[in-house]
Amino acid sequence: MKQKKGIHKIYHHAQDYIIIAIGCLLYGFGFNGFIFSNEIVTGGLTGICTLIYFVTSIPVSLSYFLINIILLGIAFKILGLKFIIKTIFGVVCLSLSLSLFEIVLGGVPIIKDQVFMSIIIGGAICGTGLGLIFAANGSTGGTDILAAIINKYKDVSIGTGLIIFDFVIIGSAYFIFHDIEKIVFSFVEMGVNNYVLDRIINANRQSVQFLIFSQKYDEIVERILQDMERGCTLLEGEGGYSKRPIKVVVLLAKKSESLTVFRIVKEIDPQAFISQSIVRGVYGEGFDQIKT
Length: 292
Description:
This protein is α+β, with helices and mostly antiparallel strands and 292 residues long. Helices cover 66% and strands 10% of the residues. The chain folds into two domains: 2-204, no CATH class; 206-279, 2-Layer Sandwich (Alpha-Beta Plaits).
């Protein structure tokens, strides 16, 4: 049993790193092919590196990697090793992805003379990439690290810190381009990026609660434990009409596991009564970490 759990743990970790790598490739493609090539400044560290490029001609991938090395050193000292393990992988992958598409695309926009369409497509692709990275509990470093450090010492959430950084970075682009239109496009890209990112993360982490009413509750519980490796709770109940005692199975699971639950219950007891509801947040083992 322990060996099986160990294999599952290794599999899930490997799956996370693969998803992070795919997310980095998507971001590198979307950024270079649709955003950077149209001289649009994004938020985050890539936005800072874009500004550096247009002032010094230093490639975005190089400045991104070098600045992150400094930030990771600071994060290791302040936030500890646990915070930066996947961040290091994300930083390396994204740096390589940015460098790859700088070479492959050569700074030429994929859609020419269509800036607005480019930032919509680019924002969606970048948001998808970041969504995959964050859904796999990864990070791309940059302003994420700065926001986490500020959050540790000040009563400012990481999300609020990132928004402040993004507004400052995008606003700074005016001093380089002196073009309000580019600033507007940058904020549109940021909105599309964050919207897609939020949708992907919520879709992945959304949880559901099941109330299962069945006389074969013991078989259902056993199958849930075996097939899904999830715990559940039995509540004592009484039929309002029949006045007979009944056990109610309470199960919290990921939304993506809903079909598995229905298949298990239908296979064991087709006459079972099931209630499924979406829950806003589930915290604890197997779900999101409890944060204070």
